[in-house]
Amino acid sequence: MRLMTKHLVWLKLLFHTLALSPIIILIMLVLSEQAGGDPVEYIIHYTGMGALNSLAAVLLISPIAKYFKQGLLMQTRRLIGLYVFAYATLHLMAFISLDLLFEWGLFIEEVIKRPYIIVGAVSFIILGLLAITSLSAIRRKMARRWQQLHNLIYLVALLVPIHFYWSVKSEIIEPAIYIALMIGLLALRKSSLTKIINGLSLAIKPSSARQPCVKKT
Amino acid sequence: MTKKYNQGLTTQTPWQSKDHQVTPEAIFNQRRTLIKALGFGALSAGFGSSAQAGVFDLFSDKKELKTFVTTPLSFSTNSSYPLTDAATPLKKVISHNNFYEFGTAKNDPAANAQGFIVDPWQLVIDGEVERPITLDYDDLTQLFALEERTYRLRCVEAWSMVVPWTGFSLASLLKKAGVKSSATHVAFETLYDPQQMPGQKSRRVGGGIHYPYVEGLTIDEAMNELSFMAVGLYGKTLPPQNGAPIRLVVPWKYGFKSIKSITRITLTRSQPKTSWNQLAPGEYGFYANVNPAVDHPRWSQASERRIGEGGLFSAKRIATQPFNGYGEQVASLYKDLDLTRHF
Q: What is the pTM (predicted TM-score) of this model?
């Protein structure tokens, strides 16, 4: 069955439900004390996983759409992408409000000093830019630049699981699986990623050509 | 990737293990199964009372059906340890635990350890001692006069609690065995029982630690009056998630030094290879003294989130004190040591 435009509203409703239900479950878990006596770490981890899982989901859309010839699915990417940002925001807010208890000095110090937090902060800033520019009007205005900016999602796909891997004390199996998963999802886009990288190196080359550098071996 | 880890204490050479002393595993397990069956029988008698159906029953599955039973202890209160800090409520102390043998999430131990069997138990004290001794379950609470001490507990993850522990000093236990002058360190080992501890059975559940868990102190640290063997908290025997039936509490060190569910204490001639220190020596030192001046490589140790009364937003961030505020009693132990290098 080919999905048609009339299905889109149902599809979006399904994705909204899938994305919002974990938040409702989290609230119930915390209120019923199923998340432990001091659920701070639980909430931070849970919302972080929400961001990571929705990121994996948004990167799965276009391979699935291509493989099953369901072009309509592509129209759900913005919705899921915004949930990645929403979960990342909850994750950051939980860290600042529940763990650091709004000690902004400590927050700034931690962001500067700790590499895994820098990795997370860079990802968050990129996700914020992508969220803002997801408005149709801005997208039209940006024209070709829009795609260039939104290619940064592939960088986020690598940074976020690295942030996860780096943050844990010793339980590295799960983050390692996510790193592999993200590499797999990027591998599915080998040809377009090669184009992006070639484009980047072309943009850099002219300047480096002006200053030839001879290396002795 | 082929780093070699010491798993547990390796003080026994093969010729020392006397096969006839070891209970055949099958018989040991039979005994455990029988005790387990009895335990469940007794608990199931109480099911009728837990009939409060609620919205959240969806999530509470089997957990509430079997809660480990703790019993009141008789003890005196040691007034040498008065604490102005408000104690962390029992509910939080028993539901926010790092005990990777039962899972790595803070709520995992409370969820996975309720069926843990603590009686029978054996605690062996051996190595460089005059008289190796073995304590059984009843000895743990009866051999020494019990006292209550309220200590601050500072986790290396920068959260802290205040807990009234019941127990006896480690020094009194070691004196009973007679410390030889050759002993320089004390090594502690947690029970190794993958049947009961899912984290020891699965690397994923157990967070990649090489079990059994081992911790250690120098002999001077062990003999310090603060080093405490806890058998209870809030006046009752320890729940499994807090290290039943007996655990170490060294309040001036990060929490991971205070090893839980101890089966063996071995006095040694050299510094024991401890679990976290072997896993990540750059992050977890052997000494692991609470020190606001030395950050963990991935987070600040200058302040801590004190878990107290009240809801999510009622916690407070307070300045971390050197030696967790116990400098008066222990700072002299380290007068010749560079604590930045020996963190």
A: 0.84
